[in-house]
Design goal:
The structure is a single chain. The protein is an alpha/beta fold and about 450 residues long. The chain has 19 helices and 12 strands. Strands 2, 3, 4, 5 and 6 form a 5-stranded parallel beta sheet that branches. Helix 12 runs parallel beside helix 13. It is globular.
């Protein structure tokens, strides 16, 4: 099946389309006087930081607080010292929110003096994960009013998924409108998208992107085994100890790679991804972009995937060494390049979960009328198929076609109360629009 034919495989036939509509009505009175300053520390990688930022905007709006540009914590795995302005466009972020939430670059001097000019002296409130708006109003707000500034570190996953609609809209505004990448990232990412489109001329500029989680840290964390024998085991033990300091050596901890594989918890290898895509109908004319960090034994594991898909690109082949030089050593900035190229692909393939696809799938739904062409493999089924010695190619292909159509059915989904709007932006961040272009009176209107 050619790429052109495959494009028609996605046919959700929506009764209506959805359009972004996260703006709220603005009153002439402007924002009320601030109750104090909110300082948060965004930990983790690029998209975990993104989660913290958007939730912080929502909490600041809830508390009528002034948000200080988030502090980025140096993560032991990512090892990226980038600050907010190195990754996101600070000059765009602040005015984009000014009618909804006050944001300042740093704590005013008179407030900082109160704490001996040391942010670390500001009380750090240990907020539990997934805390409700009521908790913030009853426990955090009084302390903020009394002390004029509070700090929450770390802040990741500190706000519940299910919150009132006006709080959700602030999350929508922050994620889909206020947050954009800094100029150097945006400039190079746009060039990379243009080059990917040009390289995909045989498929009208459309390409497939794959989030390949086969870096050493992911392979080590998964506790899965591949074909590296004793040497691989030694490397993985060292990597686990370096990244997670004894977590995997605790008493009673049993590592069972075979069980992990059957449970669908092992990262797919490049070869397995290639076989899956071929089975789904992508042929060797398909342009493929691989979003990844440093692949574990790249020369060895990537060779079969490159053979199956000669039109394969990565950021290292799509951008010049000179263009990438300023990003080297900054994993979050490099991830931002991957994020942008994946965002504009015809099809996105997610292979291991995590915050990258969590945000990207939702962002693509938001961009493409509510339906994202996303392949979400059933890794339990894949493990059984790959380990079956007698399976025939025709049977494997049929299974892959079924998996493709199942993914298609999941491309359009409304948010459930317990789910994240960053993955499911409808109906909180989007309005329903009937085929004729009129908004449905029964849709969720963001007023």
């Amino acid at each position: 099946m050619k790429m052109m034919q495959l494009m028609t495989a996605w046919n959700p036939k929506p009764i209506q389309r959805w359009k972004p509509c996260s703006r709220m009505s603005i009153t002439n009175e402007g924002l009320p006087n601030s109750n104090g300053f909110l300082i948060i520390e965004a930990n983790g990688g690029l998209n975990q930081q993104r989660l913290s930022i958007c939730d912080a905007v929502a909490v600041a709006g809830l508390l009528n607080a002034t948000l200080v540009i988030p502090i980025f914590h140096l993560n032991s795995v990512w090892q990226d010292s980038s600050k907010f302005g190195d990754i996101f466009d600070e000059d765009f972020f602040i005015p984009a929110l000014h009618n909804y939430v006050n944001v300042v670059r740093e704590l005013p001097g008179e407030i900082l003096e109160q704490f001996d000019n040391n942010i670390s002296s500001i009380v750090n409130l240990r907020v539990k994960g997934w805390s409700s708006p009521t908790y913030y109003l009853e426990k955090v707000l009084p302390k903020m009013i009394r002390m004029r500034a509070v700090r929450i570190a770390p802040f990741s996953n500190r706000l519940a998924h299910d919150v009132p609609s006006y709080v959700q809209r602030l999350r929508c505004l922050a994620n889909f409108e206020a947050l954009r990448f800094a100029d150097p990232i945006r400039t190079l990412a746009e060039k990379m998208v243009e080059r990917m489109i040009k390289n995909s001329s045989q498929s009208e500029g459309k390409y497939v992107s794959v989030h390949l989680r086969f870096e050493m840290d992911m392979v080590a964390f998964s506790c899965c085994e591949y074909d590296g024998g004793d040497e691989e085991k030694r490397e993985m033990d060292v990597a686990r100890e370096r990244g997670w300091r004894g977590k995997f050596r605790r008493r009673g901890r049993v590592i069972r790679p075979g069980v992990n594989r059957m449970d669908g918890k092992c990262p797919l290898t490049p070869l397995e991804i290639g076989m899956m895509l071929r089975g789904m109908g992508f042929d060797n004319t398909t342009s493929v972009y691989i979003a990844a960090g440093k692949i574990y034994y790249e020369a060895k594991y990537m060779a079969p995937l490159r053979q199956m898909f000669p039109r394969l690109e990565t950021k290292d082949t799509l951008a010049t060494p000179e263009e990438l030089a300023v990003f080297k050593g900054h994993a979050s900035r490099l991830a931002a390049l991957d994020y942008t190229v994946c965002l504009h692909s015809e099809v996105f393939v997610t292979t291991q979960g995590g915050n990258f696809p969590h945000f990207l799938v939702g962002h693509r739904r938001h961009m493409y009328g509510g339906h994202a062409k996303t392949i979400m493999p059933d890794k339990r089924k894949l493990a059984l198929l790959f380990d079956s010695p007698n399976i025939r190619w025709e049977s494997f292909k049929q299974q892959m076609q079924d998996m493709l159509h199942h993914s298609d059915s999941k491309g359009f989904q409304l948010k459930k109360p317990s789910a994240s709007l960053y993955t499911f932006p409808m109906p909180d961040c989007m309005c329903k629009q009937m085929e004729g272009g009129n908004e449905d009176n029964n849709s969720t209107q963001l007023k």
